[in-house]
Amino acid sequence: MVRRGVRGLLPAVLAAVVALTPAACGGGDDTAGDAVRVGYSQLSAEGSWRAANTASVRAALTPEHGFELELSDDQQKQEGQIAALRRFIADDVDVVAFSPVVEDGWDEVLREAADADVPVVLVDRGITTALPDAYATRIGADFRSEGRRAGRWVRRNAPGARVFELQGTLGSGAQVGRQEGFDALAGDQVVGAATGGFTRAGGRDVTAAALEAWPDVDLVFAHNDDMALGAVEAVRAAGRRPGVDVRVVSVDATRQGLRALAAGDLDLVVECDPDFGEQLAGVLRRVAAGRPVPAETIVRGDVFDRTVTPEQVEARTY
Ligand code: AHR
């Protein structure tokens, strides 16, 4: 793979000229015949969403689709992700991709990638950075919008509720965005918040403690379905009825999440679709070929309430 001007976008005029070259006129992919070597650091199998996301990436980035993928499972550890990124840079892959466990702390390794002229693509979560061209593009959900959708529902349907906010991994793009979005619309209803680390066990334990600390809590906003399902267990263990005494609002729309919604244990689930491997493949091809990409590709999702149908539940692929 020949790397050509992969850092940053081509100016519009140059992009237009490139679009008229014979290779582009052929409508083909100018990486054809030469596998795109991708080093990808996933942040581990936190739960069903993450497992589905990894499966989607693996299914799309195959040799048959023109990719050579090296995937590193980095156990929710930023040090592990940084070490993986350094390995990929040393291997001189065509593109480094990663799902950052938290937003901060990537500048040093991203500078190393830039110095080595290896383009970087953010997958799922975003980062904060002081570097001007730290990465080529990001593909993933709009976490703020997800939080706003949940907050809007609470504001409209449970305006007097006292909310416990069950946060994802602190400092992660998903936690920061969902919290900002939710709090913008229903922040004055939040009486307490704590992180359950995006896992079911974390959601259960932290909600159990929260129901003791704030006995008047009657609504939990969980930053993902796995934690929401843990929260439902904790509500029951506390002798209260999920969906009646304590309502639960969540994000992801896993099959288990939607089953709990249909059963009346959850009240609302905002979808965050993990199945964007094919879209990612398109982005990676363009970046590897030095072709222009948008600053961000937003993966869109739906919202499900108690009107969810059995067909919708069973149609879930994750
Ligand atoms: O970054 C996306 C979030 O991470 C998903 O909502 C969650 O389930 C996952 O662990």
What's the short version?
This protein is an alpha/beta fold. The protein has helices at 12-19, 22-25, 48-60, 78-90, 107-115, 143-157, 173-186, 200-213, 225-237, 255-262, 277-288, 310-314, and strands at 36-42, 67-73, 95-98, 120-123, 137-140, 163-167, 190-195, 219-222, 247-252, 268-271, 296-298, 303-305. The chain has two domains: 12-141 and 274-301, Rossmann fold; 143-272, 3-Layer(aba) Sandwich (Rossmann fold), CATH 3.40.50.
Describe the structure.
The protein is of the alpha/beta class. The chain has 2 domains: 12-141 and 274-301, Rossmann fold; 143-272, Response regulator (Rossmann fold, 3-Layer(aba) Sandwich). It is 40% helix and 18% strand. The protein has 12 helices and 12 strands. A 6-stranded parallel beta sheet has the order 2-1-3-4-5-11, with helices on both faces. Strands 7-6-8-9-10-12 form a 6-stranded mixed beta sheet, sandwiched between helices. Helix 7 (173-186) links the parallel strand 6 (163-167) and strand 7. Helix 3 (48-60) packs across helix 11 (277-288) and helix 8 (200-213) packs across helix 9 (225-237). The radius of gyration is 21 Å and the shape is elongated. The protein starts with 11 loop residues before the first helix and ends with a helix. Alpha-L-arabinofuranose (AHR) binds at residues 46-47, 49-50, 124-125, 174, 198, 224, 251-252, 272. Alpha-L-arabinofuranose (AHR) is lined by residues 46-47, 49-50, 124-125, 174, 198, 224, 251-252, 272.
Order of helices and strands: HHEHEHEHEEHEHEHEHEHEHEEH
Helical fraction: 40-55%
Please tally the β strands and state the result: 12
Helix vs. strand class? alpha/beta
In the predicted model, the low-confidence regions spanning at least 5 consecutive residues are: 1-32
Give the distinct bound molecules: alpha-L-arabinofuranose
Main sheet: strand order:
2-1-3-4-5-11
* Strand content range: 15-25%
CATH-assigned homologous superfamily of the largest domain: Response regulator
Counted up, domains total 2
| Amino- and carboxy-terminal Cα gap | 34 Å
Overall CATH architecture of the largest domain: 3-Layer(aba) Sandwich
**Net shape:** elongated
Largest sheet: 6 strands, parallel
Q: Using the coordinates above, name the CATH class of the largest domain.
A: Alpha Beta
Radius of gyration: 21 Å
Mean pLDDT: 91
**DSSP summary: helix tally:** 12
